[in-house]
Automatic annotation (TrEMBL):
Sites where the protein binds FAD: 211, 267-274, 288
Ranges that cross the membrane: none
Family indicated by similarity: Belongs to the ETF alpha-subunit/FixB family.
MF GO annotations: electron transfer activity; flavin adenine dinucleotide binding
Keyword annotations from UniProtKB, A to Z: Electron transport, FAD, Flavoprotein, Transport
Manner of cofactor binding, per the entry note: Binds 1 FAD per dimer.
Protein's UniProt name: Electron transfer flavoprotein subunit alpha/FixB family protein
Source taxonomy: Bacteria, Pseudomonadati, Bacteroidota, Sphingobacteriia, Sphingobacteriales
Amino acid sequence: MPVLVYTENAGGKFKKSIFEVVSYAKAIADAQSTTLTAISIGDVSADDLALLGKYGADKVLNVSADKLKNFVNQAYASVIAEAAKSEGADIVVLSNSFSGRGLAPRVGAKLDAGVADGAVSLPELSGGKFSIKKTAFSGKAFAVVELTSAKKVIALTPNSYQVVDKGTSAKVEDFSVDVKESDFKAMLKEIVRSTDKISLPDADIVVSGGRGLKGPENWGMVEELANLLGAATACSKPVSDAGWRPHSEHVGQTGIAVSPNLYIAIGISGAIQHLAGISRSKVIVVINKDPEAPFFKVADYGIVGDAFEVVPKLIEAVKAYKATA
């Protein structure tokens, strides 16, 4: 029974998080001594589809019907479920992205499968048990869940598994499904993407600012540091509520949850609502002039100092390092 992995695309291109999820699914397939089939839905070039073989997919199913070129939650779930049935797949893997969080339970319901969303490690297979470590309580804790159903759906948290270049290739096949009209009752009319910015959920590094920056006119140094590091920019809820930064940069329990390898918090006190959105970060650096700021309790590295003195020095240090690297 092969493993099936859904590979979502953005504007016809695959992001790094998709190569992570293909690598992750390949590791599961290897542990099960089976093959890995990928499914792509939408308008993706043949070269990009074949690229999935590099990360472990043995076969790629390409679905390119006109009605499915834009993401439609219920219809995409039907296609993925039918592909799993066609391939005889017992395990379906997808990214725990915004789309993936909507798809996972729908695919699970259609396959009568157990669902583990927010997975952060490979499943442990012992004594017939299939256990997965996942995030819980808005990322403030981990839970180990055991899937006892015959079919399983796993949604992998971005930046939780490394991209593994297998140097292999995959054959690409067209795949078609008769999707019911009822699956198109709710349609997205338009998706507007910020093409010149790094996506927050996929970012390896995030530089984030809070009210300690005193106003939107001071965000230049945050953006300069982010540009030097190849990072995405983010902010706390009070900052977006005040209109200093767009709500699309709001990180926290009521905003975007991120899981970068490095999160740099500048002038953010560390309210529990903000920590809920960044707790899956691997390394947290906090810059704040208040030594009693709650953020320091969860930081891996802390700098007690004025952001207007510390950040410019940090920028110069990064520039100096890059000049000699």
